[in-house]
Amino acid sequence: MNFKTIAMATTVLCLGFSAVTAQETPQAKREQMMKQIGGSVGALGAIAKGDKPYDAATVEKSLTTISTNIKAFPDQFPEGSEGNSEAAPAIWQNNADFRAKAAKLGNDADTLLASLPADQAAVQKAVQTLGADCSSCHQTYRMKK
Fold it and tell me: Distance (Å, rounded) from C-alpha 37 to C-alpha 31?
């Protein structure tokens, strides 16, 4: 191997490692989790509005994603991870309330999963419940960019 090949391979490996490391930060992890939750709420919203036909598999997958992600979400806010995100300082100042709001969303998603909404009207009611949970938390714990 010549020097250029070795240098190029080393550069590619370092860039790949940097990308993996960046994705492992608490900010990146919680952003990824919230995007998945948002996508799931969006999928449910499309069914609720009639933009997409009712699909039990989509409803179940969306509720499962919301339930799974929100349960792990509060643990993605260790001390020192305040910067470079939309997380409001109130998360660290009133962490018990933040965790309670996340738990409520998780419990509501679990309840909906236990008796899966069976049609568009039921999905509309589910979206109202979940939307209220999301809004309650976002009003206090999310800063607008």
Answer: 10
